[in-house]
Specification:
Blueprint (H helix, E strand, L loop, with lengths): L3 E2 L2 H23 L4 E7 L3 H17 L2 E7 L5 H13 L5 E4 L9 H6 L12 H8 L8 H12 L8 E5 L6 H9 L13 E5 L6 H6 L3 E4 L17 E4 L3 E3 L2 E3 L4 H7 L2 E2 L6 H30 L1
Parallel strand pairs: 1-11, 2-3, 2-4, 5-6, 5-7, 7-8, 8-11
Antiparallel strand pairs: 9-10
Helix pairs in contact: 1-10, 2-10, 6-7, 6-10
Amino acid sequence: MTAQILDGRQIASEIQSEIKQRIEQFVRRQNRQPVLAAVLVGNNPASQVYVRNKESACAKVGIGSRLHSMPDSSTTGDLLEKLSELNSDAGVNGILVQLPLPDGVDSQAVLDSIDPLKDVDAFHPYNVGLISQGRPRFLPCTPHGIMRLLHRYGVPAVGRHVVIVGRSDIVGKPLALMLAGRNCPYGPQMANATVTICHSHTTDLHSLTRSADILVAAIGKPKFISGDMIAPGAVIVDVGINRTSEGLVGDVDYHAALQIASFVTPVPGGVGPLTVAMLLENTLVAATIQARSATELYQSS
């Protein structure tokens, strides 16, 4: 068996073309383009690359982007002041704070201070609560990208056992909520899964991963998921991006997975491009919600 590649670059390109058309319609109606503001603290090379990629993606679909670079010496108070300014700026529709933040900065306080209506990463507890109740405003970018990728390739979740290795607030937990729900924006076939979350204290991890119909690796350890941890015919979603002497590799032994799985995401070129595409989607959704709210406020005055 040779697995089919889940080509995230191709799917992201298709989605971005669709988003571009929707943004053109938004601009015709509102006479302005959606705007995403990114806050970058310090000189982390990887973070700088990520922000540049997001700026480039915004430009391709017609989203305005504003970069707010802050020195590595910035305090929690400095960031809260900047975010208060962006929250109040009607010209900004979406706000993202590039992680990780420098040591000494209270990341949780910073993320919690973003206006939930502009929280396009869907990290704010208000938005997380809506996801847990099955009525999301925004879906977090990486989990959303995973679901879009599976949906485009016709890989259903309903009735299947999904094992997620990693319990982060960014990927593991929200993805579990989304897949275990009764429905999702792509229909009940992409929800209603039985989900197991594994982590560093999980016993007999091999048995659990081998029981997975869909196995998601999101732990940040290069090639941690070996071939003997994969069931024949499983769908493998590799969220990891690890810089090694071999270059970028995922959390899964890719070459082993190719010989065992039915579908597998490459690294790079798998989940990553979809994460960026979903950020663009959320920015457009945020701009649409804010425009509707402004119209309703005007009509009621």
